[in-house]
UniProtKB/TrEMBL annotation:
PANTHER family: TRANSCRIPTIONAL REGULATORY PROTEIN NARL-RELATED, TWO-COMPONENT RESPONSE REGULATOR. InterPro entries: CheY-like_superfamily, NreC/VraR/RcsB-like_REC, Sig_transdc_resp-reg_receiver, Tscrpt_reg_LuxR_C, WalR-like. This is Response regulator transcription factor. The modification 4-aspartylphosphate is found at D52. Keywords: DNA-binding, Phosphoprotein, Transcription, Transcription regulation. Residues 144-214 form the HTH luxR-type domain. Residues 2-122 form the Response regulatory domain. Pfam families: GerE, Response_reg.
């Protein structure tokens, strides 16, 4: 796939370039600032952008704001955000900004090369990938949401894995249940949250949005 990297740490940026090249991906641009990221995305229209949250010029949330801009202006471009910390507001906004093609991983996850590459492939293919720690932090804020009180513990476990972007098959593997059981839990979640009459992908996203209390 064609990839743009945005990371102001030269060491990490060069390491990611090398890793992706070894996997057969084409890094069409590697930049160190948010404005350069937007310019490169407009020029190259890659399959996916991998960006840090904190980047120049302000060294605050420039990378995340650039990621949200990319999702609005070029919806065909997938975005995978890397961060050293969980930024609740922006993480929630990223999750709710689209029906897919987004991911949010903590940088520690990059050290788990197989997990990072799997997340990259999943997001580029139109899915979602959210770090389990990101999901847990966001879910901590949403226990007051009334409709969620009707969910069983197992249904909440399933919904948490849905928020990470896992497919039904992967959910069944993680929870050691059959795929049909996972599908029943997901349908029960949709019913309890009043999500009917929408496509499967839209309902999954809407369920996650409700769970994150956006």
């Amino acid at each position: 796939m064609r990839v743009i990297l945005a990371e102001d740490s030269t060491l990490l940026r060069e390491g990611l370039i090398r890793l992706l090249a070894e996997e057969g991906h084409d890094v069409v641009a590697a930049v160190g600032t948010a404005p350069e990221l937007l310019k490169a995305t407009e020029e190259h229209r890659p399959d996916i952008v991998v960006t840090d949250v904190r980047m120049p010029p302000d060294h605050k949330d420039d990378g995340m704001r650039a990621a949200l801009t990319i999702r609005r202006k070029w919806p065909d471009v997938s975005v995978l955000v890397l961060s050293q910390y969980v930024e609740n507001r922006y993480a929630t906004e990223l999750i709710t900004s689209t029906d897919g093609k987004v991911g949010y991983l903590l940088k520690d996850r990059v050290a788990q090369v197989d997990e990072f590459l799997e997340a990259l492939d999943r997001v580029a293919a139109g899915g979602a990938a959210f770090d389990p720690e990101v999901v847990r932090r966001l879910l901590t804020r949403t226990t007051h949401v009334d409709p969620l009180e009707t969910l069983t513990r197992r249904e909440k476990d399933v919904l948490e894995l849905m928020a990470q972007g896992l497919t039904n098959a992967r959910i069944s593997e993680q929870l050691h249940i059959s795929q049909s059981a996972a599908e029943k839990h997901i349908n029960a979640i949709f019913d309890k949250l009043g999500l009917t009459g929408s496509s499967g992908l839209s309902r999954r996203v809407m369920a996650v949005v409700r769970y994150l209390g956006s």
